[in-house]
Design brief:
homodimer, 243 residues, mainly alpha, Arc Repressor Mutant, subunit A, 2 domains, 11 helices, elongated, DNA-binding, DNA binding (chains A, B), HTH_TetR (chains A, B), Transcriptional regulator, TetR family (chains A, B)
Chain lengths: 243, 243
DNA sequence: GTCTATAGCCTGATAGAC
DNA sequence: GTCTATCAGGCTATAGAC
């Protein structure tokens, strides 16, 4: 969420597409990186993200977002004509991060290796992008008013394609005959919990914040329990690069 | 959340305790059940719960709550002097439901039986009280501004007492040597997911709403995977009363 | 492109008749 | 106990000077 220059441009594009009567800006891609525009867009999106998570959509005032971004309030309206456009742009930013994890897994891969990898990636993602996870969670909990289309047109097809691979593995006797979709939900819920409910987790564990060691423990625990739970032997722990 | 006459009274008590300058109402317990007061309190708390979940705290207007409850706006202020008091009363209501599930488990019990029971209870609870789960989740995600004390003074001690039991079972060789606290988080997250993220789950599965059969499947899946994952054999499925 | 000033609306909360 | 009428304040959004 810090070094995503390209996605930021999407923010402006989303805005323009949401509201046809938007500003007269030409395509944002024309601007070179580091220009005032790019810089301000990044500041605004980042500040908005924080405020939306902390205060909710209605609770986040444009004034507070402007203050956090260090810009006058009217500038927010200059870049994003309406508050909802800004909110959608922030969500869009998150989805582009999300989609990086919808990576391809192949029928020929080793199930234990792939699932272990997936679980560790998701835990690492929750650790490094807790705010993204939280805003996404709040949107879904409230009934996904802005993400219904995404769920139906992008997430559902992705899940179905993964289900196919898992079903093949089951047919080949490589893992227990469980319902693949429940396994996907289990991996999502158990890993995201540590980002979304960090306040609860840290309070119960009496910690001020997560440490890398704890994150590794969590990943190993989840990978171990889930893999054994579906009849796989968790692969020996190896050092992994967190992307 | 429909037939909890006793908790409703807590709403008024919470209100009085939160704001010392509250109304001149004498102790709510004096009123007999079914009185106008009780009825209105129930209507207000129920309507407020819905609005808070759907719109968030700031997005839920007292006017909207009043409309949903079928009462004039000023009545809300009569029963709950301030908006935050009403919100805290709703949360308090939820916690009383929650606490019913903090049941005692004994060292002499059979681990597989107890955990299977716990998982099935939690799934059933998510199914029958999705809104309660959602409001609690939103509060925690936003940093638990109103529930910090609850987490520290009630939830944490409860978790610690359960950890002891689980540790004993591990010492007795009854289950694999895992970290008990991660197991508790795993059970919470994987079961609550079906309430909090119902929109995502139902969209991905292309269903309009949950059915009892699906809930049973989910409970069996989670119980099976988690129990096997920690070295236990899931007990044979038996019919259970949902309380 | 930037920012001040302000319009217009809706909010939470209250006063006071019934 | 109930409810109408109203207030002060904060909100999004815009117009227009710079």
């Amino acid at each position: 969420m810090k070094e995503n220059g390209s996605e930021l441009l999407q923010g402006a594009i989303v805005d323009a597409s949401v509201d046809a009567s938007a500003n007269t800006t030409v395509d944002a891609r024309k601007y070179k990186r580091g220009s005032i525009r790019d810089n301000n867009l990044e500041k605004i999106l980042d500040a908005a993200h924080d405020e939306f998570v902390l205060q909710g959509y209605s609770g986040a005032s444009i004034q507070a977002i402007a203050d956090r971004a260090g810009l006058p309030k009217a500038n927010i309206h200059y870049y994003f004509k309406r508050k909802t456009n800004l909110y959608v742009a922030v969500l869009d930013n998150i989805l582009s991060l999300w989609n990086d994890y919808l990576d391809e897994i192949d029928v020929d891969d080793d199930p234990a290796e792939v699932l272990d990898n997936l679980i560790r990636s998701k835990v690492a993602f929750s650790y490094s992008n807790p705010k993204a996870s939280k805003l996404f969670a709040m949107e879904i909990i409230q009934g996904a008013p802005h993400l219904k289309d995404y769920l139906r047109n992008e997430l559902r097809p992705w899940v179905r394609s993964k289900m196919k691979v898992l079903d093949t593995w089951i047919a080949q006797g490589k893992m227990a005959a469980i319902d693949p979709v429940y396994l996907i939900f289990l991996i999502w819920s158990s890993t995201q919990h540590y980002a979304d409910f960090d306040t609860q987790v840290l309070t119960v564990m009496n910690r001020a914040e997560y440490e890398q060691e704890m994150i590794d423990d969590i990943a190993s625990f989840l990978s171990g329990v889930i893999l054994r739970g579906i009849g796989l032997e968790p692969p020996a722990r190896k050092e992994r690069k967190i992307n």
